[in-house]
Amino acid sequence: QDNSFEQFIINYCNEKLQQIFIELTLKEEQEEYIREGIEWTHIEYFNNAIICDLIENNQTGILAMLDEECLRPGTVTDDTFLEKLNQVCATHQHFESRMSKCSRFLNDTSLPHSCFRIQHYAGKVMYQVEGFVDKNNDLLYRDLSQAMWKANHSLIKALFPEGNPAKINLKRPPTAGSQFKASVATLMKNLQTKNPNYIRCIKPNDKKAAHIFNDALVCHQIRYLGLLENVRVRRAGYAFRQPYEPCLERYKMLCKQTWPHWRGPARAGVEVLFNELRIPEEEFSFGRSKIFIRNPRTLFKLEDLRKQRLEDLATLIGKIYRGWKCRTHFLLMKKCQVVIASWYRRYS
Questions:
Q1: pLDDT for the residue 326
Q2: What mean pLDDT is predicted for residues 182-198?
Q3: Which of 116, 168, 191, 208 could disulfide-link to 97, CB 3.0 to 4.6 Å?
Q4: Of 234, 239, 240, 262, which is closest to residue 249 (Cα–Cα)?
Q5: What per-residue confidence (pLDDT) applies to 34?
Q6: What fold does the segment set 5-138+174-193 form as a domain?
Q7: Where are the domains positioned within the chain?
Q8: Torsion of CA 86, 92, 95, 99, to 10 degrees
Q9: Which tens digit of pLDDT belongs to each residue from 113-130?
């Protein structure tokens, strides 16, 4: 019931994961259609970048304010940290506090004076400010790192690389929030180099019980996970896209004009191929560098035709090989018969 620093940084990580989900499935998807010159009506969606900026901005973010309080000389408490947040984030649309100068929150009795509330993408979350400064200041000092690095056990030494005397850093050890922010940034950089697949889990009830389906809870999750916008983009968009060269290379055996070699541009070859196969025009679109196929069934049809064609080609290759082998054997037998006959006539 009481959310503290730990839940705050967990929710920050969730915000970053939601952001990369938006980037890869909603923003990038629609930008690719525009970039490829495909006719497209933009579908609106909520971009949570503004929430991530509220937390991680290097000057005005909550983590930056927390680090600043931890480094500031003088009396530092959780209340002074909250006062600083109220000064910097008071007008932010996703930040709420009873101490805020924004009068619309002064009469909000559901929000205690020692708390602040953030409007996350998944809904509003209230955080108890008590303990934020101490937990963020949970530092591992250099002498402790150096002592652990001198251990004989290789695993312990590997866990404390900053204790290596060759890497002595006179800077103050990073705070817990800074370390977590750096870890999240590394994770995001790693994910952006991959081709991720998403599995969205829906919790049917809060009781962890079988055969109970809470409609309101499920609808809330579908709404804040961005599934509605994702479905709208997928239904209006194209299920499959591929550059012209690999597409032509994969399916060129389905058309006599493109098989075995197509001498012209790859896009022209794909156009000839699709016209030959009589695929309906509404099922595909030609982009600047890619072919876009709307429905999976069209792709399945191409794959089935390709599979059948490969079987036919395999049969043709086998037939030609067997014919060549039999003809070679026949010619050898014929040559032997001529030699034998000539020698027989010579001695007869």
A1: 95
A2: 85
A3: 116
A4: 262
A5: 84
A6: Methane Monooxygenase Hydroxylase; Chain G, domain 1 (1.20.58)
A7: 5-138+174-193, 140-169, 245-347
A8: 30
A9: 788 888 888 788 889 988
Axis crossing angle, helix 244-251 with helix 266-277, rounded to the nearest 10: 50
pLDDT of 188 above 50: yes
Please report where in the chains the tokens 């499935």 appear, as a residue: 25
What pLDDT band is residue 330 in, cutting at 50, 70 and 90?
very high
Q: Which residues of 173-189 are buried (b: 16+ CB within 10 A; e: fewer)?
A: bbbbbbbbbeebeeeee
Domain 245-347 part of CATH 3.40.50.11320? no
The yes-or-no verdict on residue 343 having pLDDT over 70 is: yes
The tens digit of pLDDT for each residue in 209-240 reads 989 999 999 988 888 777 787 777 777 778 78
> What confidence tens digit (pLDDT) does each residue in 299-314 have?
898 899 999 989 988 9
> How far is it, in rounded angstroms, from Cα 130 to Cα 114?
7
Per-residue pLDDT, 121: 82
Q: CA 45 → CA 21, 22, 40, 42, 221, distances in Å?
A: 12, 9, 15, 10, 15
196 burial via Cβ count (<10 Å: 0-12, 13-18, 19+): exposed
Spacing of C-alpha 286 from chain mean position: 25
How many Å apart are CA 312 and CA 307, to the nearest integer?
9
Instruction: Please tell me the distance from the alpha carbon of residue 156 to that of residue 149, in angstroms, as a whole number.
Output: 7
What pTM was estimated for this model as a whole? 0.66
